[in-house]
Design goal:
Elements (H helix, E strand, L loop, with lengths): L1 H26 L32 E6 L5 E5 L3 E6 L2 E2 L5 E2 L7
Antiparallel strand pairs: 1-2, 2-3, 3-4, 3-5
Length: 102
């Protein structure tokens, strides 16, 4: 009786692996590749491509655009920085208390 139970468990495990493989195959997105232009390159005529706004940043996390054209973004250490008229302001405009967890 113990052998039959073991066989059933093996069959259930095999069925679960086959079902997971089939689900992965059918529900995985296609391998469509999206070309992203390099900084400084123009796009395909409909978009300006990628433009570098600032360099040597400390792991930028989030970005937001103000109505007046300024670009606000946060960096990992908790700094809030601004790009104004295409120029990164030297000093952060604010600091957020952050804690790395996990």
């Amino acid at each position: 009786m113990g052998m039959d139970r073991e066989r059933r468990l093996v069959m259930v495990a095999v069925a679960a692996v086959v079902a997971a493989a089939a689900a992965t195959f059918f529900f995985t997105p296609s391998q469509t590749t999206l070309q992203i232009p390099e900084p400084g390159q123009r796009g395909n005529g409909t978009s300006p491509g990628v433009q570098v706004l600032a360099e040597n940043l400390e792991v930028p996390w989030a970005i937001d655009l103000a109505e007046d054209g300024r670009v606000f973004f946060t960096e990992r250490p908790g700094t809030i920085r601004v790009i104004e008229n295409g120029t990164l302001l030297q000093d952060p405009v604010a600091f957020i208390n952050v804690e790395q967890n996990g």
